[in-house]
Write a structure and sequence with these properties.
The protein has 3 domains: about 100 residues, Gcn5-related N-acetyltransferase (GNAT) (Aminopeptidase), CATH 3.40.630.30; about 160 residues, Aminopeptidase (3-Layer(aba) Sandwich); about 90 residues, Nonspecific Lipid-transfer Protein, Chain A (2-Layer Sandwich). By secondary structure, it is an alpha+beta fold. It contains 11 helices and 17 strands. The strands form 3 sheets. It has a 7-stranded mixed β-sheet with strand order 1-2-3-4-5-14-6, sandwiched between helices. Strands 8-9-10-11-12-7-13 form a 7-stranded mixed β-sheet, with helices on both faces. Strands 16-15-17 form a 3-stranded mixed β-sheet. The protein is globular and about 60 Å long. It binds coenzyme A. Coenzyme A binds next to strand 4 and helix 1. Coenzyme A (COA) binds next to strand 4 and helix 1.
Length: about 375
Amino acid sequence: MARFSSVHARTIRFEPHELGRPWEEVQVHVGDELVSWMQTVDVAHRLHGAELTSLGVVGVHTADAHQKQGHMRFMLEAALRRSEARRLMMSTLYGGVPDLYHRWGYATVMPEITITIATGVAKLAISSHSVRLADEGDWPAMARVYNRATSSVNGSRVRVPDRWPGPRQGTYFGRLKTWSLVVADSRGRVVGYCTCDGESVAHSATQEMGVCEISVADAHADSYRAAASLVSAIADVAVKRRVAGITFHLHPEGTVGRYLANHETTVNVVRPVGQAQMVRISDPHAVLKALDSYVGQQAALLDPSRPERVAVRTEHGVGYLMLGGHGLPQVVRLQTSRLAEIIFGYRSATELRAVHGVRLSRRDAEMLDVLFPQMDSYCCWPDRY
Ligand SMILES: CC(C)(COP(=O)(O)OP(=O)(O)OC[C@H]1O[C@@H](n2cnc3c(N)ncnc32)[C@H](O)[C@@H]1OP(=O)(O)O)[C@@H](O)C(=O)NCCC(=O)NCCS
């Protein structure tokens, strides 16, 4: 790749973002020309009962004329160093370009899941609650419903009710326009909500043919009855717009997902590798420390002769799994990308060893599989920065 060389100095700036702190606008200039830019935001993701701090990265771009000269590398590495100095444990991003971000240790850690239901089937949902369009005043209540529903969903982001700025986007990154519905109980308390993509130009052009869908980027409810009311209200919108189906982007184990599982639906699970929702472990010590209590509980499932502790050596330093057994301390070597896949449950250690040639003894792989069984982590679309 052609390396950057210019008579002008290359500089990086961390500017205020229109959304305020903890967002930042990162810019690379050559002389006074802007060549690369992205936005970052400090967030926290839940994992096994802990909250892991992360630098969310979004909107990475290098101007066409300046690509392939190392500007993005320069920018991302500077932002990561800055986040490490602030003790953020990880970095998360949505990799839209395949096979790019692994260079910095990012690994895909969650599947993309959609559940599609025909409008006619959704229309059969029985509504027992009132449902109305949400406005800004509903954001704190929506954040509370979300937190109740996702407190044990690995990968989900933490929304601070009084500071949550509402759904910043729907699915994918061009869909900044959204509409939300809230479900209220008989006392007017918000017990469910959904956020859907706003109409795109393509949608308006094809809706007359009745082939379009309503795309739900996020939906949570406190109960099945609230979920049914929500689905019924979305179906009403679908009927009004004459669209054939509704696609929900959500974790199938949430209340809305489980409600939908009782109906005829099409569930599509994509397990991307090297793209989509990715995590980079910047500080393995801090990440594994945060998981101490979870690891302690899982370790009880292992034989008492398990090691007292396991040092996990990575290219970003050492972290420890405190197993509390009678056995001697042990060392396991793993790249942080593999460690991320294992702790988020995306791939089992045994699979990494057998299928992907990761150098682990069978015994170590089996031990890691007991500590971190496979499961689907999930981050809702509006939380992907
Ligand atoms: C992707 C993009 C940001 C890369 O910017 P850039 O300044 O050209 O990247 P760099 O020159 O710093 O390259 C860094 C590394 O990524 C690699 N790379 C760059 N573009 C790549 C691409 N499209 N696919 C795969 N690898 C790529 C380079 O080969 C280089 O690897 P190396 O250092 O190991 O040789 C730029 O092409 C772009 O703005 N594309 C359009 C917007 C976009 O797709 N953004 C990403 C959204 S997730």
